[in-house]
Design a protein that fits this description.
Length: 168
């Protein structure tokens, strides 16, 4: 198999995993948003910020331990700091669009709020995907990443050597 297609396959897997975690995060975000709006009198953007923060926590766990589990695990403080920084920027993008729709255009019905929030999530997701893969969950050299994934699957590494399984 050509290295170019192997890199493309890795990118497709990464996008699929990011999408799976992100899709679940969207459901968490919208679910919490609608629950908070239903059980409280908080303004729409405040309810949305609460929902976004809950989804950020959910997404970090999914990204770190599933989507990007083969990425550099050194410097967790740096990783978490960058994750929170870029997530905060995504929060501003997402809720800025909701704010504009609600207070700029007067779209405040539940349906309009959900549509505006969903669009905001979509725009913020593009930014988050780029920033997380570029800055937060840094890629390891391909050889090291393959070894980690092979060890997790307990299968041979591509050069023919068997992965070492750690038994506690």
């Amino acid at each position: 198999m050509e290295p170019r297609s192997s890199g493309l396959q890795r990118l497709v897997r990464e996008v699929a995993k990011f999408g799976a975690v992100g899709g679940a995060g969207v459901l968490v975000n919208l679910g919490v948003f609608n629950l908070v709006r239903h059980v409280s009198d908080l303004p729409v953007v405040r309810a949305s910020i609460i929902a976004t923060v809950v989804a950020i926590v959910f997404n970090y766990v999914g990204f770190r331990y599933w989507t990007y589990r083969d990425r550099d695990k050194g410097g967790r403080t740096r990783e978490l700091t960058l994750f929170l920084l870029f997530s905060a920027i995504g929060l501003v993008i997402e809720n800025g669009l909701l704010y504009l729709a609600t207070y700029g255009f007067g779209w405040d019905s539940p349906l309009q709020s959900n549509v505006a929030k969903f669009v905001g999530i979509g725009v913020a997701t593009l930014f988050r995907f780029w920033s997380y893969r570029s800055w937060v969950f840094r890629a390891l050299p391909a050889r090291e990443a393959e070894s980690i994934l092979a060890a997790e699957a307990n299968r041979p590494v591509p050069d023919g050597t068997a992965s070492k399984q750690h038994v506690p």
